[in-house]
Amino acid sequence: MADDIDFANDLVQKQIDQAVEARLALLSDIVLPSLMFCDECEEPIPEGRRLAQPGCTLCIECQSTDDLRASRYAR
After folding, report:
1. What pTM did the predictor assign?
2. What SS3 class is residue 43?
3. Which tens digits make up the pLDDT trace of 8-35?
4. d(CA 70, CA 63)
5. Phi, psi of 45 (to 5 degrees)
6. Domain ranges of the chain
């Protein structure tokens, strides 16, 4: 009996995992529009950056600082 319950639980878990994977795949295709102003310094984000990097929220300078900070913590 426990084997049947384990099998059912495994089956349901696989279905949940597949549903979550499918939802994440859909969400990864969604690109939010770029912001007009940087979230960090509130300066305008140049149009070239917004076109080159759809969905950006930081200007180039703030993004560089953020990337540098992240790389230091990644070590």
Report:
1. 0.56
2. coil
3. 999 999 999 999 999 888 877 777 788 9
4. 10
5. -90, 125
6. 1-30, 31-75
